[in-house]
Design goal:
heterodimer, A: mainly alpha, two-stranded antiparallel sheet, B: mainly alpha, 69% helix, 8% strand, flat
């Protein structure tokens, strides 16, 4: 590998933390700038872009010690793949934020919007550069959280709430699967390396073979692969977890463009690319090639069934992510090449198309495909952008998507030729799915041609801030396309090829021999070229029947059992029903019921915990009690028995205090005057409070049924037994050497007090006491707040 | 519950309880007692007044404050005073912890001095921990009284 400069720590740190700092400042900035906050945010994104660009060509890890005494540090890794995602997040961020300046004009809750977008961008940059599995996970879930806020931007609308919750539920829970996978990986690696390396992605990449061997030896390879796969699939909207992505278009269009094209959904494919060198193998190919191709095909079919332009693009995003996943899935080097190159292409054309969709929705006032057409007349520039981007999306030569799709076909063909048999399904499905991709891409393009439908008034041109970003993206897509044409004549645009090559190298195992990356229009007939030709021919032949296909797809998706959404809704709303039922049972407004469930729960958990941990009840030894103590405890027991048969509340409370005072006397006998004093005072206070409260209670509860009595009796026995066992177990764990002696010795010279208990409280362990009094104050405040809120009628 | 006997006894006992509470607080460092116990005992005195004379008595007769509706009284009335008490307590404890930093010691470092020859009293032993204990005392008094008043009003 070429000698490359190390990345600069300050720049990498700044790029990750700058957006968060800027997000925190948004409310202040908004007060000063108002709607022009968009340009402030865009400037921040531009700064990030500059910082990422300053690391171009660098390769290596940056480690910042955090808690050196514990060996904890934060590390970031810079290589082709992380730079690519960094460029996408910050670069598309600049465009999206600029575009928002026009699009969000007059929209509500703008400070929240810009703060969330910036935080989202920061999280995404964090995901890209994190070199530590835990840090990666944290940033990963941060993207889910911030996108939750963004998707639910119109927070009063039911559909926004539904969409936000759905995306959150799916992506966050997917992330939790991934976390379990990470922890398993960590656990296995602890056997071969130090604790700090076991979470370190850089170390894993350097020792990829060792990591995989260890995983296989421990029998953990498949679980880790599957768990990480679930995380990536949830984030990148792979079938059947793709269902959150179409709903996410509830967000304002710039957000959709950001989430769908450049960032959020790219996190999943990024993860696959990042871990590919470590985990790639037979199982990897089977899992991800199948998953990716299925997603690509299913989502493309669904896109044909879409009636809304944003819905079409959303399914298309899922489909193209499937393509990238499938690419990364193939073991061959071509697979990595496919994934790396298609990430670039997809980001360019999809972000452009989303912004175009926003322009159409904004200016034409509708997003329904059937109500749109003939827009070229009014929006020629937008139409030109769309032509370049949509043809790229369709995979038509010489536009940009064509080259990466060729690579996929090539990889699928090679894998099939290598394995034979069922593996021929790979190229077959790839072609089949691509036909639908072609169909919906052309459909989108046709919005600009043909006749204007009746009812579509003349459409205004969009403001310049809204036009410039998609134009830039369209030009970028066009430049990549032209690069391919020039490549055919042997003229390569070296920096771009080099960069994609770098990304590609990041996805290869360390042993693999990469070669320089170039792309060009095929000049002679290869299997892949033939597959492309078949795709386009089939697509062109099927296009006249688009409406019939569209209706057919919709008829299929009307069948509940075929819709992933139906399963999601049934599950989520079904669980809602359960929880409603359970809540009614457990929290029925009666304190008694609450106490029953809480105590039964605690007792069951504690006893189960002891049983699981195999804790035995320790034997009694050195059990000695003086006559006085026995007497006092005897009275206490009699008092306890008397409580249970007390005829009224008042006598019950009074008898209960006999028990309390006896315990206090016991403390005196056991040489603990401080405890005794506390017990006495607290007992007295409790008695008084009880008397205050009792005034309001009815004298009797009435007669409880026999069944209830038995149940309550059994519960109280269980609770008593739990406490008894707990006391026994916890006192048995006392250290052989008492620490009391040391405290006694130090008390007077160090603390200057004769009362050891007090010296411990205010001197040796004053910090604990500090915490405790804070808790007491907090309790008072919460009582106050609860009651005051009820007074104000805020009972929910 | 307010019989004449109860009222008379309360009048005698409450000052005794309060004095005892303060004594417990002050002697806590060397003998049984301390901020927590002293605080709880003080609250007990107030609770006895509540029980015997009723909630309003304390506020109207002793403190000459007009009794507002519940929510108002949280904001201005006697409960607000209780809140101030535990806020002050927390502050005292925190300051007592911070002062040692000025002298280059750790947070919450405590020291103690003997004042050998005070007039009348004789030898006095002062521990800086008393300040911290005082904070504990105020927090306990303020917080428990708040709870007592709120629950009692209910």
């Amino acid at each position: 590998m070429l000698q490359t400069p190390d990345p600069a720590a300050s720049a990498v740190l700044a790029v990750v933390f700058l957006p968060f700092a800027a997000a925190a400042l948004v409310p202040l900035v908004y007060r000063a700038l108002g709607e022009r906050t968009a340009y402030y945010a865009a400037a921040v994104a531009l700064a990030c872009f500059g910082l990422v660009a300053s690391q171009y060509g660098a390769h290596g890890a940056v480690t910042v010690p955090w808690i050196p005494s514990l060996g904890v540090s934060v590390s970031f890794y810079v290589d082709g793949l992380s730079l690519l995602i960094g460029f996408l997040a910050s670069g598309v961020g600049v465009l999206i934020l600029t575009y928002s300046g026009g699009y969000m004009h007059g929209e509500p809750a703008q400070p929240k919007y810009y703060a969330a977008l910036l935080a989202f961008m920061g999280s995404m940059l964090g995901v890209a550069f994190a070199a530590d599995l835990v840090a990666l996970f944290v940033f990963w879930e941060l993207t889910s959280l911030s996108s939750f806020i963004l998707i639910g931007h119109y927070q009063r609308q039911g559909s926004s709430q539904y969409a936000a919750r759905k995306s959150m539920l799916i992506t966050v829970s997917g992330g939790l699967f991934m976390l379990v996978g990470f922890l398993l990986l960590h656990d296995v690696l602890l056997d071969v390396t130090t604790a700090s390396n076991a979470f370190n992605i850089v170390w894993m990449l350097e020792n990829a073979e060792l990591v995989q061997e260890e995983l296989r030896a421990a029998g953990m390879f498949l679980p880790v692969l599957a768990l990480v796969g679930i995380g990536a699939a949830a984030k990148s909207a792979q079938v059947p977890l793709h269902i959150w992505l179409p709903n996410a278009m509830e967000a304002p269009t710039p957000v959709s463009a950001f989430l769908h094209s450049a960032t959020m959904v790219k996190a999943g494919v990024y993860l696959l690319g990042r871990l590919r060198p470590i985990l790639v193998g037979e199982e990897w190919q089977l899992l991800f090639a199948v998953l990716g191709l299925t997603t690509m095909t299913v989502a493309a079919i669904l896109a044909v069934g879409a009636t809304d332009i944003k819905e079409l693009l959303a399914y298309s995003t899922a489909s193209h992510l499937g393509l990238i996943v499938a690419g990364f899935g193939f073991v061959s080097e071509l697979g990595g090449e496919t994934g790396a190159f298609h990430i670039v292409n997809h980001a360019a054309f999809k972000a452009a198309l989303f912004l175009v969709a926003g322009i159409i929705a904004h200016e034409a006032g509708t997003r329904k495909i059937e109500n749109l057409g003939g827009l070229w007349e009014d929006l020629p520039v937008t139409g030109a952008i769309t032509a370049v981007a949509a043809l790229g999306m369709a995979g038509v030569p010489p536009f940009n998507g064509f080259y990466s799709k060729e690579l996929l076909f090539e990889a699928a063909w090679e894998a099939a030729a290598h394995a034979g048999g069922l593996a021929w399904l790979y190229p077959a499905v790839a072609v089949f799915g691509s036909v639908f991709t072609f169909l919906y891409s052309i459909k989108f393009l046709m919005l600009f041609f043909g006749e204007k439908p009746t009812g579509l008034h003349s459409v205004h041109s969009p403001p310049k801030v809204m036009l410039a970003p998609p134009l830039l993206l369209g030009v970028l897509a066009g430049a990549i396309s032209i690069g391919g044409v020039l490549g055919t004549f042997g003229v390569h645009f070296a920096p771009f090829d080099h960069f994609v090559g770098e990304v590609w190298a990041s996805t290869l195992p360390p042993a693999a021999e990469g070669h320089a990356f170039h792309y060009y229009v095929p000049t002679h007939l290869t299997p892949a070229a033939a597959m492309s030709a078949v795709t386009i021919a089939l697509g062109a032949a099927a296009y006249p029947f688009y409406d019939r296909l569209h209706r057919g797809v919709n008829r299929l998706t009307d069948v509940d059992l075929l819709r992933a959404n139906w399963y999601y809704d049934s599950a989520v709303f079904g669980v809602n029903g359960w929880s409603d039922a359970a809540a009614g049972r457990i929290q029925n407004g009666l304190l008694r019921t609450y106490a029953t469930w809480a105590m039964a729960g605690v007792a069951a958990l504690a006893l189960a915990g002891y049983a699981a941990a195999g804790v035995g009840v320790p034997g009694f030894s050195g059990f000695s009690v003086t006559l006085a103590m026995a007497l006092v405890l005897g009275v206490a027991i009699v008092g306890a028995l008397a409580v249970s048969i007390a005829p009224s509340h008042i006598s019950g409370v009074l008898t209960l205090s006999i028990l309390g005072f006896m315990v206090a006397v016991f403390y005196v006998l056991a040489d603990a005057p401080d405890l005794a004093l506390t017990q006495l005072v607290v007992e007295t206070l409790l008695l008084v409070i009880f008397l205050l409260v009792l005034d309001k209670l009815p004298a009797f509860y009435g007669n409880a049924g026999r069944g209830k009595m038995v149940r309550d009796g059994a519960l109280s026995v269980v609770v008593g037994a739990t406490v008894f066992v707990t006391v026994l177990v916890s006192t048995a764990a006392a250290p052989a050497e008492s620490i009391a002696g040391e405290f006694l010795e130090l008390s007077v010279p160090e603390g200057g007090g004769g009362n050891v208990v007090n010296v411990i409280l205010v001197d040796f362990r004053a910090f604990d006491t500090m915490g405790e009094i804070s808790v007491v104050a907090m309790a008072a405040l919460s009582v106050l707040t609860l009651v005051a809120m009820r007074e104000r009628g805020e009972t929910q | 519950m307010s019989t004449v006997i109860a009222r008379t006894v309360t009048r005698t006992v409450v000052p005794l309880i309060l004095v005892t509470a303060v004594a417990l607080l002050l002697q806590g460092h060397n003998l049984p007692g301390g901020g927590f116990i002293g605080g709880v005992l003080t609250v007990t005195a107030f609770a006895v007044i509540y029980v015997i004379y009723g909630l309003d008595y304390l506020q109207e007769e002793l403190l000459h404050q007009f009794r507002d509706p519940l929510l108002e009284s949280f904001q201005h009335g006697i409960v607000a005073n209780y809140q101030i008490a535990f806020a002050v307590g927390l502050a005292v404890a925190a300051v007592a912890g911070l002062v040692p930093l000025l002298f280059g010691y750790n947070f919450l470092y405590q020291s103690h001095w003997y004042l050998p020859a005070l007039p009348i009293y004789g030898e006095l032993h002062v521990a800086s921990a008393l300040a911290f204990d005082l904070g504990v005392y105020f927090v306990v008094v303020g917080a428990l009284l708040t709870i007592l008043a709120v629950v009692g009003t209910e």
